[in-house]
Amino acid sequence: MDKAARERVLAVLLPTILIGAGYFMVFNRHKDLEAARADLAATELSALPPEAVGVQLVELEKLRKKQDELKADKARLAERRAELAAVGNPPPVIRTQALRRLSAMLWSQGLYPFEESPLEGEGQLSPMFDETVRKLVGTNSRGDKRLWQIRFYGRYSDVVATLETLHKSESPVIPISLTMSESKIDTDWRSWTLLLWI
User: Fold this and answer.
1) What is the dihedral of CA 80, 84, 86, 92, to 10 degrees?
2) 147-155/174-180 β-pairing
3) Which is more confident, 140 or 66?
4) Secondary element (H or E) of residue 151
5) What average pLDDT does the structure give for the chain?
6) What distance in Å separates the CA atoms of residue 32 and residue 157, rounded to the nearest whole number?
7) Rounded mean pLDDT of 78-83?
8) Which CATH number fits domain 92-197: 3.30.70.60, 3.30.1330.10, 3.40.50.1220, 3.40.50.1860?
């Protein structure tokens, strides 16, 4: 095909090509516009109305205040725990002397101690103790033992009298719990375990 023939063919086809390209561009533009409109409609449907946004902001502010209150409560509880741990925290020599006086008191009341030892770890505590007491027992900041147990033999009436005497004394020893062995028909003597905070 010579040059003149090619130019004639192009002259005939060029308007058709240009019209087709124009329609293609308009059609695509129309599709993009429709997709954009659909996206906008979906966004408007999912968007919260202005009054709902205000409600959400009020709720968020309430949650922030509650969080601040909880932080303040936690700080107060930590301070209270530190205060409780420090209450009646005599030096080791005072505690040793108090334990010796208690042992002498038991003997004088007709009770016979056979074992005295610090309680190691909160795992030996009865389930009745709450979490705060469990955290306070064991060792304090100086590593001194605060929870002790004394096991002794005796009669119920002598144990009651001894606890009353201990209560009236100014000893730093604080009884926490008292348990006794099973009763026997042929004797009123029992084995007792006294748990002390000192």
Assistant:
1) -160
2) unpaired
3) 66
4) strand 147-155
5) 75
6) 97
7) 66
8) 3.30.70.60
